[in-house]
Amino acid sequence: MSHADNDKIKEPLIYGLNPKQLSLIVLVVQNSMLVLLMRYSRTSTLADQPIYIASTAVFMAEIIKIFACSFMLYYQEEKSYKRCIKLIYLEIYQKPREVVKMLIPSGLYALQNNLLYIALSNLEAATFQVTYQLKILSTAAFSISLLGRSLNREKWLALVLLMVGVTLVQTESVTSAESSVEMSNGQRPIVGLLAVLTSCVSSGFAGCYFEKILKTSTTSMWIRNIQLGICGASFSFIGMIMSDYGQIRAAGLFQGYNLLTWFVVTNQALGGLLVALVVKYADNILKGFATSISIILSGAISFCLLDFQPSFLFVTGTAIVIAATYLYGANNNR
């Protein structure tokens, strides 16, 4: 029996799926559900039910993330509650300079998470999903300036295609929505577009900055995420109090919350950590497939359930974005 055959036999199966297949499903579901459910939770409340305050959802997501990272630190590394608590104390309270390093990415992530709620309150889920792929462009730009990487011709071509596709999608969505959507339900596509563009820039810079910190230190990834979560929770709390204190004082922190809201908050908190655990089994081609499938799935569900009517420009632009995403990801293996 060959070595390849042995690998196939030893490869663990979960519900009949190998790790790569499971990774693809998890990435697609997480990418699609977060966008669709966040959009639905912000636009489909009953007339007598208040919409939950976005800043409180961002704050609660950071709290959940801290507890999740603490659990993973215990489960994967320490295997002891006492050692886990001691390590967190040493890394947080005894090394304030290391925590200070997290202020920049945590502040940007807090900004990004708040902007996502603004964007999805003003853009269709499918339009947001396509436009949000511009984070590939910002990440590429910051990886060149912060991490010293270089891009070959195929990746530059993918970035150009990405810009073309997103431009087509936004040209259609903004012009058609200005007259119909804005007047009918108060949504402002221009505000949504500015929010998602700013979110893409902050996501790209914060991601590259955080990667640089991880690669230039020996600190555990879970400890770094706990530091990031503590700083992020602090920024989110300050933003929540500054922007929505009056509303929170009048009706409470959890006004408008329901089961769907908690699902969105938990998905946002755990999504990145879940993907971080699964993608080690998936190559870049698979990640590109997952992103592409999630864009198609979001568009299909929006069309069937959320009264979204894609135009020719939208379909063309989406196809170009999917091709660009796949080309950029597949080229990482070359």
Description:
It is found in: Golgi apparatus membrane. The protein has 334 residues and is mostly helical. It has one domain (30-38, 48-333). The protein is 80% helix and 0% strand. The chain contains 15 helices and no strands. Helix 3 (54-78) crosses helix 4. It is globular and about 60 Å long.
Main features:
0% strand; mainly alpha; globular; 334 residues; disordered N terminus
In summary, what is this structure?
This protein has one domain.
Gyration radius, to the nearest Å?
Answer: 21 Å
Overall number of structural domains: 1
Question: What is the percentage of strand-forming residues?
Answer: under 5%
Q: Can you tell me the residue ranges where pLDDT is under 50 for at least 5 consecutive residues?
A: 1-9
Helix content: over 70%
List the secondary-structure elements in sequence, H or E: HHHHHHHHHHHHHHH
Number of helices: 15
Mean pLDDT: 80
Structural class: mainly alpha
- Sheet with the most strands, sense and barrel status: none
Q: How many DSSP-defined strands?
A: 0
* Span of the ends, CA to CA: 30 Å
What is the general shape? globular
GO molecular function, one term: pyrimidine nucleotide-sugar transmembrane transporter activity
Family: Belongs to the nucleotide-sugar transporter family. SLC35A subfamily.
Keywords: Golgi apparatus, Membrane, Sugar transport, Transmembrane, Transmembrane helix, Transport
Transmembrane segments: 21-40, 52-75, 156-177, 189-210, 222-242, 262-282, 289-306, 312-329
